[in-house]
From TrEMBL:
Identification of the protein by name: DUF2306 domain-containing protein
Keyword field contains Transmembrane: yes
Organism domain of life: Bacteria
InterPro entries on file: DUF2306_membrane
Organism: Amycolatopsis iheyensis
Transmembrane segments: 28-50, 70-93, 105-129, 135-154, 166-188, 200-223
Keyword annotations: Membrane, Transmembrane, Transmembrane helix
Entry keyword annotation includes Kinase: no
Length: 239
């Protein structure tokens, strides 16, 4: 992805930027937080009682007695990832309170993405059985989720803020699959199974959410990168 941008620059993280835009002038942060909370509430709605009989992922096969505890742990760590990623993409917090931003990032990676993805790898064979197209979407999602997050961490370790931003926003897009997939399930559920069969429903729900998120974020990143290049070019003296 970096080949489409200008050569990455290295910048040293600085202290709080007192000239940062006020948080209330970022009108998207409150809806984003509401979406994250809604996704968490919806996800926990069938697990809050810790009763395997009402789990939304069914059935619970006897040959996998640890499936439900692993599932609860996966959801718990996933909840941490969904909530902390909102803090990660909040520009006001990053500029005014960089230490909080960094600590939220550490919690996001160590307490959210890493354990949630690892537990998902254990769950997939228990939930889906032999590999199917729906399972494949989860595998690709998990690999991309861990990869973009790891590359984002590596970039900031090398003080490459530009690529850190690129990879972590990509990680954010994948994290928000927790909302977008469930949103698609709600939208298309009235059409299932009379209009949309099981395979089509699995494709839409399994792939549609995170792929759409990722494409939108990549388009936005390319657009903002082009806009910055145009702004820099406008400041150059005419030859």
């Amino acid at each position: 992805m970096s080949t489409t941008l200008q050569p990455p620059t290295r910048s040293t993280p600085s202290g709080p930027d007192r000239g940062a835009t006020a948080w209330w002038r970022r009108p998207w942060i409150l809806p984003l937080a509401a979406v994250a909370v809604a996704a968490v509430i919806y996800c926990w709605s069938t697990y809050i009682t810790f009763d395997p009989r009402v789990a939304s992922v069914a059935p619970l096969p006897a040959e996998h007695p640890m499936k439900y505890p692993i599932l609860i742990a996966h959801i718990t760590f996933g909840t941490i990832a969904v909530l902390t990623v909102v803090l990660q993409v909040w520009p006001w917090l990053r500029r005014r309170h960089p230490r909080v931003h960094r600590w939220a990032g550490r919690v996001y990676v160590v307490g959210g993405v890493a354990p949630s993805a690892a537990l998902a790898a254990l769950l997939l064979p228990m939930i889906y059985g032999p590999p199917v197209f729906g399972w494949l979407s989860r595998v690709v999602l998990a690999v991309l989720w861990v990869t973009t997050t790891a590359l984002g961490v590596l970039a900031i370790k090398r003080r490459n803020v530009r690529m850190h931003r690129w990879f972590m926003l990509s990680s954010f897009a994948l994290t928000m699959d927790a909302f977008s997939t469930r949103f698609l399930q709600i939208v298309f559920m009235p059409l299932y199974p009379d209009v949309i069969g099981r395979d089509a429903f699995m494709i839409i729900a399994g792939w549609g959410g995170w792929v759409t998120n990722l494409l939108l974020v990549q388009a936005w990143l390319f657009w903002t990168a082009r806009r910055r290049r145009a702004a820099r070019a406008a400041l150059l003296p005419a030859s």
